[in-house]
Specification:
Chain B: It comes from Cohnella endophytica. The complex is a heterodimer. Chain A is mainly alpha-helical. Chain A has 15 helices and no strands. Chain B folds into 2 domains: 2-42; 62-297, Orthogonal Bundle (MetI-like fold). Chain B is built from 14 helices and 2 strands, in the order H-E-E-H-H-H-H-H-H-H-H-H-H-H-H-H.
Chain lengths: 275, 298
């Protein structure tokens, strides 16, 4: 920054501060509502500090809404399984495309590139019909299996492995490790940064997914938290204290992962070029 | 020597295909097959009662679009939405990135903080904003305080879409900010130094160097923004409880497709709409890639 800009330095801090406020206020407002009593919510006002601080809203949603815990567990199970599948399958496919010469590999690589461009909306209806004919509606696999491998991240892993030093693998091969041993013992442990970036994106994507569970699950017990939250809103219209408490609970796991892994985020975004 | 090579070729083929198998099965069964199926459905009338049956109807589904008033409403909403949201979020993202790129203290804190809305579930964000938008909510309280008119943000058709726009600008701009921030690192420092020798101030450097150098990235951000507006669904669905209301004000293309497919169970027509939407999005993507490539060559 040169001298002419130094004069403006305070202005830039003010701008950053104001925008940080704009970012935080909605979250803080939701958090404060989740600790307020219903009368205080109804009365309105803009106090961020609850007059009568209470945990009752959280207690109520866990006690009176027996399915809430179930929805949370459904979301957690789906998000974790989808993440594990993707880490494994995308890395395997990416590695094969980067390192192993086999008939059809070039065709597969270009098909993967083409798949990335297909917008998800095209496949909504046929996927529903396919899942239905498999008898998978209202089951975990209806969401887990179709989301189990993703073209974008296969491409990302392939790019990662291509720029990976070959010498290590060659040395391991001389030691008599086969392809699979090589992959699990040498390649995967060294791919940690790429796997971490993938973990965040895929976990967040699965945890926040709305349309797929909305379509595939009609049995209330099989809802994920995102769909459950929407039903909850319809059920408790104007009970904003409950709705906000439920929203805060849904935000916490994603938030923890974000705070823990945020340094991998930027790398991942700039790598895939989009979300 | 030929023998071990053949053996190796076989071994590579076997291991290559075993590594690819899970991806081939999933992408084949739940991406490739659905694409073909979607095209098939677009030209058929689908009967879902009992066993699923199809009746070939030629281009009837596509002809029907011409006089479907709700399609035109959804398109008009999308265009309105894109015209406001895309420029706003692009400019906001660029300004934030440019400020963060100056060597200020705590920049990392600000970067992490700004990105927060992007990682929050859209279901949660919509609920939080509905809470802010309600009649006695925070936004109206604030508007009243500074002497501006207040609105029934959730129920008034003339402002409902604006509510979703504000929320989306707020939650999408940080994503593009990160992309801009990465691109800013690639601008050679020497360009700025040369401009300084010529006596350019910070403002001039921003307009004469930063903005033109970022042109390809801006193009990418704008195109991605447009595609994002075409794909808007969660927000409208939760905001309007699936109806696209009040008075169709928040009806989007994907919400319309969802309604035709799962409310009217008209899967053939819904597939035709989805097919058209996909073609438009892919055309935009292809054009973007072609222009992007040319920019890089120049």
């Amino acid at each position: 920054m040169n001298k002419s800009m130094k004069r403006f330095r305070p202005l830039f801090y003010v701008l950053l501060g104001v925008y940080a406020l704009i970012t935080f206020v909605p979250f803080l407002w939701a958090l404060s509502a989740s600790f307020k009593t219903l009368p205080e919510i109804v009365k309105g006002g803009i106090s961020f500090i609850p007059k009568h601080f209470t945990f009752d809203n959280y207690r109520t949603i866990f006690h009176q809404e027996p399915l809430f815990v179930r929805w949370f567990l459904n979301s957690a199970f789906i998000a974790v399984t989808v993440t594990v599948f993707n880490l494994l399958f995308n890395s395997m496919a990416g590695y094969a495309l980067a390192r192993i010469k086999f008939p059809g590999s070039t065709l597969m690589f270009f098909s993967i590139l083409a798949m990335i461009m297909i917008p998800g909306q095209l496949t909504i209806i046929p996927s529903y019909l396919i899942i239905k004919s498999l008898g998978w509606l209202n089951s975990y696999q209806a969401i887990i299996v179709p989301m189990g491998a993703q073209a974008t991240y296969i491409f990302m892993m392939r790019q990662f492995f291509i720029s990976f030093p070959k010498e290590l693998e060659e040395a391991a091969e001389l030691d008599g490790l086969g392809r699979f041993g090589l992959f699990y013992r040498v390649v995967l442990p060294l791919a940690k940064p790429a796997l971490a970036a993938q973990t965040i994106f895929i976990f967040m994507g699965a945890w926040n997914e709305f349309l797929k569970p909305l379509m595939m699950m009609s049995d209330k017990a099989m809802f994920t938290l995102s769909v459950g939250l929407n039903t909850f809103k319809g059920q408790y219209i104007s009970f904003w204290n409950y709705i906000m408490a439920a929203s805060i609970i849904m935000t916490i796991p994603a938030l923890l992962i974000y705070i823990g892994f945020n340094r991998f985020f930027v790398k991942g975004i700039t790598f895939t070029g989009s979300k | 020597m030929a023998k071990p090579n053949v053996k190796r070729m076989w071994r590579d083929a076997v291991s290559g295909y075993s590594f690819m198998t899970p991806a081939i099965l999933i992408i084949g069964g739940f991406l490739l097959l659905p694409i073909a199926y979607a095209i098939f459905l677009s030209f058929h009338k689908v009967n879902l009662l009992g066993t699923v049956s199809y009746k070939f109807t030629g281009t009837a589904n596509f002809e029907r679009m011409l006089d479907d008033p709700r399609l035109w409403i959804a398109l008009r909403n999308t265009v309105k939405y894109a015209l406001i949201v895309v420029p706003s979020q692009t400019i906001l993202a660029l300004v934030l990135a440019a400020i963060l790129n100056m060597k200020l203290k705590y920049r990392n804190f600000f970067r992490v903080a700004f990105y927060l809305p992007t990682v929050t579930s859209s279901a949660v964000l919509v609920l939080i904003f509905m809470w802010i938008y309600n009649k006695n909510g925070l936004l109206n309280y604030f508007l009243e305080m500074v002497g501006l008119p207040t609105y029934n943000w959730l129920g008034d058709p003339s402002v409902a879409l604006i509510g979703i726009m504000i929320m989306n600008i707020w939650s999408t701009a940080p994503l593009f900010m990160v992309i801009y921030l990465a691109a800013l690192q690639d601008i050679p420092e020497s360009l700025y130094e040369a401009a300084e020798i010529d006596g350019a101030n910070g403002w001039k450097k921003f307009w004469r160097i930063t903005v033109p150098q970022l042109k390809p990235v801006t193009f990418y951000v704008v195109v991605m923004g447009i595609i994002g507006t075409f794909q808007l669904f969660d927000q409208s669905y939760i905001f309007s409880a699936g109806s696209g209301g009040p008075n169709n004000a928040t009806l989007t293309m994907v919400l319309l497709i969802y309604q035709y497919a799962f409310k009217s169970l008209d899967m053939g027509y819904a597939s035709a709409l989805a097919f058209l939407l996909a073609v438009v999005i892919m055309l935009i993507t292809v054009i973007q890639r072609l222009i992007f490539k040319e920019e890089k060559l120049n």
